[in-house]
Design goal:
mainly alpha; Four Helix Bundle (Hemerythrin (Met), subunit A); globular
Amino acid sequence: MKGEIDLLLSVIDDAYSGKSWQGPNLKGSLRGLSAEEAAWRPRPGRHNIWELVLHAAYWKYTVKRKLLNEKRGSFPCKGSNWYVRPQKLTTAAWKEDQRLLDEIHQDFRQVVASLNPRALDRKLAGSRYKCAKFIYGVAAHDIYHTGQITLIKRLIQSETGDVKLVKSRSKDSAV
């Protein structure tokens, strides 16, 4: 059973910052992006990379909270699920939201590492899904949004003609 926890940790780490066979991981897909690039929208009303970052952080927080059976309301940003960004179009604000994603990932990882392996088979309160499904769901969620980020970076490149954006910032991409 301890092996299952280790496998889940490996899966969430690979999707977030490890070596992934499918291309870039979430953290790697953000490498080198400026605040302006992170704030760029493919069309009005569509999410930008910056919003995807906070959305990923929010769901790591949500699953962590469910694993610990904690109440809602402690996420650092007001609202839930989607957060309009940028509030301030600054490098410091962009780096702060990336730091928040990293911090929440580390908190989530720590909770998973501390789980009793028998807990993986229990359904979480208010859900029909088992604990393990939520955990590997976070990894799948990271990979899904990494694909969106990669696509948005390509759209930025086609809009601006900056070939370096995709090549240099997705160097570990297989896409």
